Amino acid sequence: MKNLNPSRQSPVASPVIPGAGALPVPQGPPASVHVRVQLKGDAAQQQRLHDLRTLFTQACNALAPMVQSTRCWNRVALHHMAYKPLRERFPQLGSQMACNVIYSVSRAARRVYQHPDSPHNAARHPERPLPLLRFGGPVPVYFDRHTLSLKAGEVSLFTLDGRMRFKVDLSPETERRFRQDKLREIVLVQQPDGAWALNFDFTPLQDVDPQGTDPDWPQYLVVSNEALP
Length: 229
Description:
Layout (H helix, E strand, L loop, with lengths): L15 E2 L15 E7 L3 H28 L4 H15 L4 H21 L17 E4 L5 E3 L4 E4 L2 E4 L6 E4 L4 H9 L2 E8 L5 E7 L18 E4 L5
Helix pairs in contact: 1-2, 1-3, 2-3
């Protein structure tokens, strides 16, 4: 079984390389390499992925007001504060996927509240109330070694109805990366054509900027100036 134990650091921004193979980005210092693996399933399997993302999104939106009101987005501190309420409110997610919700919200909050170029940088404007983060649309779902495994050309991943398996074709270069490189993130995404895929992010072991290099946030993340309740 492959070692799927991604480090919980946000990767340096880099282009996604479609297909089972991947090549390093040549310019600048060592950067991330993304491997995209297509998930070809029937209508029932596609619906199970959609249902998982729907609940994952709901959990992210339930957690975001806590981050806004407490001004806490450190992943470890947020885990201590939010894990039990999340598990009680969203029992179907299971223990590890609840952890991944916390990671997702922490990651987004760092980008909005902590990036030096963000207009909502909390350190630069400590007197201002934080805007509320809202997750919607094609929200990425984060996985880890507890919720996803890869073995003998087959990927097994957590869903709300139990494990689901897909056959995948991996190039020799991709197989080598899983054996030798540092895997930082595993993300389930839905592409513009509606197809689902897994993005595997391999990043060199050097320290990287936890906010990433791009101050802009993705389309699925809306920053609202809605007041605290």
